[in-house]
Design a protein that fits this description.
Elements (H helix, E strand, L loop, with lengths): L1 H16 L3 H6 L1 H11 L1 H7 L12 H16 L10 H15 L9
Length: 108
Amino acid sequence: QDEENASYFRQSREQRFGKRLEDVAAARDAGLATFRAALEPLRSMLSYQPFIGGASPLFADYIVFGALQWARIATPYKLLDDSDVVAQWFTRCLDLHGGLGRKVAAAA
């Protein structure tokens, strides 16, 4: 069963991406630079206030947090440098509500 699933997964994903899975993985670093650059408006805002909402989180904080939380639990691939203000904001969000965001383990 696992070999059958692996075969299907490889075939369907390679068809979707139009290249081998190994080539998709190799190209992710280039995509990472683009992703990090796209965060510049958020980075700018968070350089002078602790949350998108200002002094406390608002709906927009939770929307962005949700996307980054999904990445945190789905892959061990590191999207943000620890020194990035967006990473520091994300850490603050993980600690909200008694650390509720940390109760789901990060991908190993």
